[in-house]
Amino acid sequence: MSTTHKAPVDTRTEASKGERIADWADGRLGVYRSGFLLRKVFPEHWSFMFGEIALYSFIVLLLTGVWLTLFFDPSMTETVYHGSYVPLQGVPMSQAYSSTIHISFDVRGGLFIRQLHHWSALIMIAAMCAHTLRHLLHGSFRKPRELNWVIGFVLLIVVTLEGFVGYSLPDDLLSGTGLRIAEGVTLAIPLVGTYLTMFLFGGEFPGHNVIGRFYSIHILLIPGIIVALLTVHLILVFYHKHTQHRGPARTENNVIGQPLLPHYAAKAGGFFFLIAGVLCLLAGIAQINPVWTYGPYRPDLISQGSQPDWYMGFLEGALRAMPAWEFTVGGYTVNMAVLIPGVILPTLMIHVAAGWPFLEAWVTGDKREHHLLDKPRDHPTRTAFVTAFVALYLVLFFGGANDVLAEKFHLSLNEITWMVRIGFFVVPAVVYVITRRVCLGLARADREKLLHGRETGRIKRLPHGEFVEVHERLDRRREYTLLSREEYKPLPAPVAEVDGVPNPNLREEKRRYLLSRWLYGNQVPKPTEQEMREALAHLDHSANGHAAVNGHGPAAEHAEIGAQRSGEGQEADQELL
């Protein structure tokens, strides 16, 4: 019979203070059971850094924004400047503009913080655009990430709006011109345009309330929305697990990479300080938005070469390129010269980009979960469409600088405007065709490398005198990656009737069929298993002087690697290198 001996009370060791705190926290937060989150795996690829750049720039924006609120006065009350900047002394201006000049010249470090805030905004929006393009080109928007794609895209729009609102706060001549354009675009909206204008500006432009209203929107409303959307976005990224590129041991059911702690956290922390350092370097040596050179806003003044921040350049270009066109309906003037480029075109572009995942899912009927990414060349139509979309944006962007281009290159302003109008239709079409052909060419090159090996640059003379270049078999990792890509095929043609019964969904199926042919038609097929057996046997024969016999050599074994991988069963949900 066994007995249990308890240690005397006076000899028991008391739990340490750290252990007691941990036990207290676990009883209320369940920290012990959440330890698996610290081992969450994140794959590594340079393209994944765009989202981190945007996040870290946002952190810098919040820190510098809080500092600027301590000195900025969002009032449109008129005052006369008597500060240290001599060229503006005695000039009437608003309190908002005066406080901006005061921050720039009289507050220690004020100009540096202003420029750091502005550079962070520009870099954040640029990183978010690159992040969005990466998702489009690699197909990471597919199930189960459609909702997260919409959240991310809304986040991009909200951040762009936040940038425009913040850009308008100094009440200088340049930002006031941008506000004037925004007021014109708002007025061009039928039926509700005048009401929206009164709501925003509090009366006739420029009014006395717009800066104060924009200030509240800029520091409270929109940042709150951004933080909420960003939190949900990151939670969904964490929940769905990260996408990864195809490669050996990578499947739809696992993640290959580094754990959150300590590897990923250490790298992310270092990357944050690197981004912050680069932003500080830009703020210190690259001047941006020198509001003192523009002067305070006056409705009767405008300067040549007035350009908004880059993310609003496409809207400026669209407005400049659109011909004058207006008509009257029921006594109301409809200004199509502003409505089309300022309202309809941006709305259409937003809906096309945001709705692409749902269009592709509807066309294919694919309801599978996708955690492995495509290469852009593996989906030539999607890649060509995205590239054409970017080309359209760039045409309008350069159209917004037609006066600057005309001055710097000694060209006619009217000729540049006409080139933008023509390029709006021609350039995206040309870019689409070229990009699609390039993708198909790269896919064919990958197929050739699989079947014939890579070129080594070594020339060999055969016994009968012929000179040939020696080809080598691809690296096993590269070979598997090329063979594991997913093949996309168009839907089968719909039938008009089945057993004499008309197909009730014929029209919808025809539309899906035509769109699927556009998306997936004329794809470059992967080599078949038999083609790979023959090709690898030939390459091994060329390299070793003998071929595999009856398909049982090392080449044949490697040709079946894809089938072996798919038949090995489910891998662990997460896997470390």
From TrEMBL:
Pfam families recorded: Cytochrom_B_N_2
Record keyword Ribosomal protein present: no
Cofactor requirements of the protein: heme
Domain Cytochrome b/b6 N-terminal region profile span(s) in chain numbering: 21-246
Disordered: annotated segments: 544-577
Top-level class of the enzyme under EC nomenclature: translocase
Transmembrane segments: 53-72, 118-137, 149-169, 181-202, 214-239, 268-288, 336-359, 380-398, 418-435
Catalytic activity field: a quinol + 2 Fe(III)-[cytochrome c](out) = a quinone + 2 Fe(II)-[cytochrome c](out) + 2 H(+)(out)
EC number(s) reported in the record: 7.1.1.8
The keyword Transmembrane helix appears for this protein: yes
SUPFAM superfamilies per UniProt: Transmembrane di-heme cytochromes
Gene3D superfamilies membership: Cytochrome Bc1 Complex, Chain C
Keyword field: Membrane, Plasmid, Transmembrane, Transmembrane helix
Superkingdom of origin: Bacteria
Designated name of the protein: Cytochrome bc1 complex cytochrome b subunit
Organism, as annotated: Streptomyces camelliae
Source organism phylogeny: Bacteria, Bacillati, Actinomycetota, Actinomycetes, Kitasatosporales
